[in-house]
Amino acid sequence: MNTHKLRAIKAVGGDTVITFGSRLTPSSVAGVPPDCQISAVNCAQAAASGVRLNRVFTYADASPWGSAAVRCPRDRSITNNNKLFTVLVISTTGAGCDASNNLYDVVVVSGGSAPGASATGSLARAAAAQAMKFYPGMPIPANRADVAYLPDLSYQDTFRQFTDRYLQYQAAANNVKGLSGFYLSTEMPLNDGAVFEPVLSVYRIQNQAIRAIMPGRGAIVSPYIDARTAAPGHGTPAQAQGGARNIALTAGGTPLSIAVQDGMGTGKGGAYFGSEANSPVDQYAAAMVGAGTWGSKYVAPNRDYFQAAAAGVAGTGATLWANMEGMAPANGTNPCDANLRGQTTKGRIDRQLQQMANAPRKIISFMWDTYYTCVGTGVPLAQQLKNEKNTPIITDSSFSAASGALQVTGFNLSGATVELQWTTGAGLVQSKTVAASGYSPLFGQQQGLNPGLQSINANVGATSLGAGKFYIVKVTNGWGTVNPFYAKTG
Length: 490
What we know:
The chain is an alpha/beta fold. It has helices spanning about 1-10, 45, 120-130, 155-175, 195-215, 235-250, 285-290, 295, 300-315, 345-355, 370, 380-385, 445; strands at about 15-20, 25, 35-40, 40, 50-60, 75-80, 85-90, 105-115, 135, 140, 180-185, 220, 255-260, 320-325, 360-365, 395-400, 405-410, 415-425, 430-435, 435-440, 455-460, 470-475, 480-490.
């Protein structure tokens, strides 16, 4: 199953897989799964026999932790009624096994049914076999009751120790090449507001644990763009720059990648060019933000946010990635199985890639199951990508109106002709088309950018285009497809 899925992902160009973590949820003795028993006694009570029980937590995992996670004398690995459980008894006074005040928290980890294979381990091994990278999700704290978008840090010491125990289990049971690092599943907007300090605290805890317990493994976080003008917590590009920097500074020596969610699947971000600010939002965005223009519904284009994030991480040692949302807001015409969001299109995906500019070093996408595989309106997104894999995608351009020198960067630029189009002061549409020269398939590698980026050059001759004016570049590549890009002269 894992091998089949990874091969399908690899077939559309993917080389990395990421899974979400589970929540460490405050519970009670009564909230422990009824099958978790030791000698017919509730397993939390039994494991804490002879000591004082403080709090009980539950954690659902698709892997049977078992003996690999048993580190302290009171810990237990249980199989009962074909169900697997690991009970961890955690000191409330430190990281060791014994609490000086005899007070302990108990975490009951549900690990599926027996005989159970490790979901993390099997996926990591499958990834290694396919020369891919796997990042399993780290534990997630529960959200606060009063502020639902912030993590509950009232039990952060227990959360810190449980994070350590999680990583110790992974190091003991799944320390294979395919396990490249961990996904810090707690989310926040790309914003530097002080209110998000609790999320940064979670990142610090988990990054420090990775460095201490599995040094050399990386971490990924995925903050999201929210550029909606009507959203109370929307951020400007300047706030995004500060937010990216704040996140980067939580790394503590762990190789950290910040994969910014572009918000195009939830309607939070807008993939439009500056010259389109007065154009209507597309039908999918309208389902979330209502009818109106891009400029009225969004603070700025996604491009501005990605470039701001790149500036924010500069010099921190962190790496900027992008998380391209592989779905669209549901508007009644784009069903995708039973998902909350709808199926997107290859054309919309291309737009999203353009908006990322040349900022991210790597692009991942949320999510394979089932947004890439649902039949939706007829053709699964994965098949759309295969069918149109040679589409040229322009991510940036620079143009000198005086000399006519034009450089274009992007993907699938080999064998291209380039058309430059602009409008004169008198309102006349002008265009020039020339064959590209200087094709460089190694542009991204040479510039320290996304290694898949290519570049081409062209000289269209002197034009009447003034400084600060919009122009359109269209590339027709060796496969005959065309893709427009909207830019402004310097």
